[in-house]
Task: structure prediction
Amino acid sequence: MHDRSDEDLSATEQEAFAALPREVMPSRLLEERVVSELRARGILGARRARHATWGRMQITAAAAAAVALFASGLAVGQWLGARHTANAMLALQRQDAANAAAAVQRTGSAYLSALGTLAQASSSANPHEVAMAREAAQNVLQQAANEMVRMAPDDPMSAQILQGFERARVEAASKRPEGKQRVVWF
Amino acid sequence: MTPDRTLVEAVARDGDEVAFRELYRRHTPRLYPLVLRMVGGAEMDAEDVVQETWIRATAGMGRFRGDSSFSTWLTAIGLNAARDHLRRKGRWGTTEDVDQVEIAVPAAPHAQRLDLERAIALLPPGCRTVLVLHDVEGFTHEEIARQLGIAVGTSKSQLFAARRAARTLLAGTKEMSHARPV
Result:
């Protein structure tokens, strides 16, 4: 053991030691490093972790609610869309039916008008051309009767028209020499 | 200012990061230079020790009873962390080894006198620690003995050897000299 007086610092030495900095703040990065390490070890942020857990639960519930809402919205949307589509289709069909009816009416009028013109000209026109026009008119009438039967199979008028056409075809076939049938295509 | 004890409880009970940061900023400026001197001025080593100190302290805050100040409690943890760090690097022997070691005092560059900080850094870890704790931090030999787990006499011997070596270094001796601690 040494005599303490031999160990004592001189005044200059004491000043030198006293001048040494006692407080030095390390790099700011060290604080973040320490905090990060403590978080990783689960020492810090426990309360926040509990909140985060609760938060995750809330988020999960919110996500589930959002999915349910989305699914509901999708279903309603699809239903509305389907209903809209059905209505649109129905409207379109109605529109188509109306248009078709209008078209039938217009073409029927044109058909009758054309037949009237043909009737007026039949006395002075070329008999061969008149015969072709009559055959075309009969074919249109027959096809129209076919479409009427398809549309309303129980409609007796359309059926009788077709039966009349069939009898006329048979009679004509029996009177006309073979190989002389003429066909007009539309 | 929120008392340390309140902050410690907040960290221990809730893992309160804000409270921790407050404690860190309040006490690290004192802890860091002490640790830096203990590890011989190696800043990266000092930062590692400071980090380890806070990890140990935070993990053990639930056991802090407030019998001593938080600063004293933290310093004790820091000293242990620094000693463990030096031990892992093979630079901290047993008390007896330190007592017997020869202090190799390197020659200072031509006409250049080392400053005190550099001279302290060149001392062997055991002697350096006692010198830092006693002459820089103001610990008594009893406190040093308790903190480092050594005898009071050993603390005094190491302080004597450390001062003599430091004086030699500060004198700017050109040739290598050896000062044997008693």
The interface with chain A takes residues 11, 14-17, 20-21, 24-25, 28-30, 32-33, 36, 43, 46-47, 50-51, 54-55, 58-59, 116-117, 135-137, 153, 156-157, 159-160, 163, 167, 182 of chain B (CB under 8 Å). Confidence is low (pLDDT under 50) at residues 174-182 of chain B.
